[in-house]
Design goal:
Layout lengths: L1 H10 L9 H7 L5 H4 L5 E6 L9 E6 L1 E5 L4 E10 L6 E11 L6 E9 L12 E14 L3 E5 L10 E5 L9 H9 L1
Antiparallel strand pairs: 1-2, 1-9, 2-4, 3-4, 4-5, 5-6, 6-7, 7-8, 8-9
Helix pairs in contact: 1-4
GO molecular function: amine binding
Organism: Amblyomma maculatum
GO biological process, one term: symbiont-mediated perturbation of host defenses
């Protein structure tokens, strides 16, 4: 297992040139659905990008809402609690889809808002995407998900580590190792 983790970490970059075919076949099996479509809460464990906004939050997590098999879309919440001890919780709904790309999958994230029936073709409870992001999947298994953060003009903006393990336990050591190799 440790050797597999090291191989994945070394090859987790954007280029797949020079990677043996056997390893490519193994990497294709990375399945973000194991976390994305999990009915358990998923917690943001760590982010590499410097962001003052993130320092305001005590906990960022996502709870499962539903799965639409026709659209192959998972609906979850994205919630946060503040560092100042406030009991106020902020939340928004998100949609998640997985797009297969030649080397690794991409997670399509839509931030959703209620239409309140104000659009002629929408009902009062329908949600509309007001922003969409494409996050490259660097690693995925049943207990952790490492995503590339959206950057500006194709630049890398670090990555984020999501886990099903409730804080303070956090993700397995293998996931942490891969995260720090990014």
């Amino acid at each position: 297992m440790t050797i597999l983790c090291m191989l994945v970490a070394v090859t987790a970059g954007n280029s797949n040139s020079g990677i043996p075919e056997q390893l490519k076949n193994l990497l294709v099996r990375l399945n973000p659905w194991k976390i994305v479509n999990n009915t358990q809460p998923v917690y943001l464990f760590q982010v590499t990008a410097e962001n003052e906004l993130l320092s305001m939050f005590f906990c960022i997590f996502s709870e499962y809402i539903s799965y639409d098999d026709k659209e192959e879309t998972v609906y979850r919440t994205l919630q946060s609690r503040f560092q100042n001890g406030s009991s106020i919780r902020r939340a928004l709904n998100i949609s998640l889809q997985v797009k297969d790309t030649p080397f690794s999958p991409t997670l399509l994230v839509g931030l959703l808002v209620s239409s309140n029936g104000k659009l002629p073709t929408m009902g009062p409870n329908d949600l509309v995407a007001f922003a969409e992001y494409q996050l490259p999947v660097h690693y995925a298994d049943g207990r952790c998900l490492i995503l590339g953060n959206p950057g500006q003009r194709g630049r890398s903006a670090g990555c984020s580590l999501w886990t099903t393990e409730k804080p303070p336990k956090g993700p397995p050591l293998c996931c942490r190792f891969l995260f720090f190799q990014e």
